[in-house]
Specification:
The chain has 8 helices and no strands. It has helices at residues 3-12, 14-37, 43-59, 71-95, 112-131, 136-145, 150-157, 161-181. The chain starts with a helix and ends in an 8-residue tail after the last helix. Residues 96-113 and 184-189 have low confidence and may be disordered.
Amino acid sequence: MTDEVLLSEIKKNPSKGFDLLLNEYSAFVFRLCRTVLGSVGTKEDAQECASDVFSAFYRNLEKIDLSKGSIKGFLAFGAKHAAVDRYRKLLKEKERTVPLENSENIFDGVTSFESSEKKERSRLVSEAIRSLGEPDCTIILRKFFFGETAKEISERVSLSAENVQKRSQRALAKLRILLEKNEGGVLLD
């Protein structure tokens, strides 16, 4: 279904059109929100954030101009900003509370060591991706974290889709080498 048809359906029959929109993009928006929120937010935080994105889409329905971008692009932009705002809010809330690791509670299944290890792995991967430089960093993030195609990415980075694909392969090879150097390849287990 094209964006034009989907947008027309939403305007004509909001209930049916919105169901179509959710069926098409809810997993994508949730994945973006979950990625941005990382370990700071819960699954429920990501779901609430995704819900806010779709609410904002509906509130701004008349402002959407498909000549300036796609529905997926609008939702991705909204998800990124909503998730960043929620991330900041959650960090402020965490600063006002005592970290769970410092409490005397016993956790079922997850130790603070496991949590710290996951955070450290995320930090190392993030640093490795950033070290690739532009446009490789953007290509990797958009392809593997936002699920964009080479064609979609090519429009953002002003390269051909073929060039984006080649750069992606080279960047992945560089990334593998960088991550293998960290902790003797522990990150790639």
